[in-house]
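[Automated response] Your request has been received and processed.

Submitted sequence:
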Amino acid sequence: METTIPQVLASAVRRDPASPLLTFYDDTSGDRTELSGATLDNWVSKTANMLVDGLGLGAGDTAAVALPPHWQTAAILLGVWSAGVAAEISDPESADVLFTAPDQAATTKASDRYATGLLPFAMPLRELPAGFADYVLEVRQFGDHFPGQPVAAGDPALNDRTHAEVLAAAAARATELGITAGGRVLVDAATHADPVDWLLAPLVTGASIVLCANIDPARVTSRAESEKVTLVVA
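Generated structure:
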């Protein structure tokens, strides 16, 4: 039984590396990005390698992730957890590294700061805020395989909750939302912004995710049909 978030991700990738694990839509930008388990795992590995080999972070360190639901946010969060680093999504001030959007104000002591525009095709930013590096440019320099870090169920994972506590919360939310093993879940990012809902509840259950930002209600039915969705979580 999986007791940490990296173990949950590894099981999802191992179960079906080629099928879509996370599909992202933005009805304002027109973006559609589909990531198989293997592709998402590559982004996660690159992020973890950047944190461990590039920044020297690990157990006892904290990454502030001040980003909305997005496939890049998923890669960053899962990379943070794979690196043995704790994630903080509500209080970035004491973090050791910050990931944020360029227009997102955040007070932090972190000397390492990464911005991403969450743009289609993982395009880089045209202009970077002073003191920030571009996440999508920097992360591409690191390897697609992460050898792993020791991560235990009792280690901090998200907002002072341990991996075991976060996974228990995700399993409970999956039950409340009706997410079942092998399902394909369409999630409204605006109403389910907590990563426990939009990312971890499907993953811990063995479901794949269709994450929709700025969702157009008129497109929900047709999108659910085209993506072979089994459950809409709006």
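Summary generated for your ticket: The radius of gyration is 17 Å. Helices lie at 5-15, 37-54, 71-82, 135-139, 163-177, 195-205, 220-226.
If you did not submit this request, please reply to this message.
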